Every structure is written in C-alpha cells, then in structure tokens.
Amino acid sequence: MMTDGVTNRHSSFHIPVMINGFEDQLNGRIVVLRSVSLDDHSIKFHTDIRSPKVILIKKNPKIFFLFYDKEQKIQLKVSGEAKVNYKNNITKDKWQKTAHLSRKCYLATSSPGTISEKPTSGLSKEIENSKYTIEESESGYKNFCIITSKVKSIEWLYLAAKGHRRAKFEYSNSEVKKYWLTP
Ligand SMILES: Cc1cc2nc3c(=O)[nH]c(=O)nc-3n(C[C@H](O)[C@H](O)[C@H](O)COP(=O)(O)O)c2cc1C
Fold it and tell me: 132: which of 19, 55, 72, 136 fits an S-S bond (Cβ 3.0–4.6 Å)?
C-alpha cells in the first residue's frame, strides 16, 4: 500500500502525516510520499530546506509517519530516522525531473512560516501567475531538499467488527522482528 501510495494520487497513503519534534516543539503536517525502498527500508518526501520541520530534523532525526486508509481500514504508524539530502546527487537528479510548475513551491522569497502583514503566497506576482522560465525556476534549487527516512518500525492496525488486529514489525540491519499486539 505504501509503494502504491507513491504513484497513486487517489490513494490515502499518498499523503501521510509526518510528525517530528525537539524538546517541547512537536509538530505534524501532511507531506507527499515520493518514494519507498523495500531494499533499504526507506521512504522519502520533498520539502523546503528553510521550513521549521527541517530545522527540527537537524536537531532530532527521529521521525514518525501516520497513514490511514478508510476503505481498507488500515492504519500504519511508521517510525524512523531522517536524513536531510541537500545539494547532493539525490536532490540534483530529482530537481532536474521536477516539472516547471512544481518548482513554484520552492520559489518563495521568505521562509515557510514567516509572519506576513497580509495574506500571502510568499511568491512574486510573476511567479504566482506562472510567468517564469525554466531557467528562472533554477533559483528554487537552493531551497529544495529531500528527506530520506530509514524505517525502524511499522505498527499495523486493521479495524474489524469482530475485533481489530494489530502487529508490529521492527527492522534492524538484516533482521525483521514481528509481533502480534493486543489492539
Ligand atoms: C495535500 C498536501 C500535501 C503536502 N505536501 C507537502 C510536501 O510534500 N512537502 C512539504 O514540505 N509540505 C507539504 N505540504 C504542506 C505541509 O503540510 C505544511 O503545511 C508545510 O510544509 C509547513 O510545515 P512546517 O511548518 O511544519 O515545516 C502539503 C500539504 C497538503 C495539504
């Protein structure tokens, strides 16, 4: 379901809630699931390097993702350790594949979360109206980063009228520990 969530925009697994924090600063938000690797148990999302969530990751790499599919009645609680990819081969490759219009997200002049006197997109009028060339969009690369999260455990919950089912998977280097839990 997570693998399908990467490419299937209609899947609720496409947009998990990502939660992270440091000391008394705890926060959650929706992100788009960009890749899932079954080989090294990692997942990725894209974001703005200036955003508060990245500042938190740098202080504490512990990261948490919450998925829920209403039709399948399945919740996943995924915990892992995050790494910030910035101006490396991973970001370079993805940025080149990032469509002209999608680059708009990285073209705000001020950082995400900056207070403004009036409602704002953070973008200039030209960029808001998509009047920028692909060359002009290149300046967004300095704000673009990819967070890779190495999955340490997954908790699976299935809702059923006769009684729910809950399981936990813990991943270490080559081993997977599996447990059933009381829901
Ligand atoms: C459907 C949806 C998808 C989103 N995808 C992303 C994403 O992939 N990356 C991202 O940084 N923010 C994404 N956001 C915005 C975040 O939820 C959040 O508002 C923003 O990143 C600021 O978060 P922060 O202040 O906690 O850093 C998305 C929001 C929605 C509603």
Answer: 136
Q: Which amino acid residue places its CA nearest to atom 4 of ligand 1?
A: 31
Domain harbouring 162, CATH code: 2.30.110.10
Three-state DSSP class for residue 12 = helix
- pLDDT tens string 131-151: 999 999 999 999 999 999 999
Which structural domain range is residue 125 located in? 2-181
Instruction: Give CA–CA dist 14/32, Å, rounded.
Output: 6
pLDDT band with cut points at 50, 70 and 90 for residue 173 = confident
CA of 51 to the centre of ligand 1 (A): 10
Structural domains counted in the chain: 1
Per DSSP, the three-state class of 130 is: coil
Nearest to residue 183, comparing CAs of 162, 169, 163, 154? 163
Pocket of ligand 1 (CB under 6 A): 15, 27, 29-32, 45-48, 51-53, 112-113
Whole-number CA gyration radius for the chain: 18
Question: For 115, phi and psi rounded to 5 degrees?
Answer: -70, 140
| pTM confidence score | 0.97
Ligand 1 atom closest to Cα of residue 51: 27
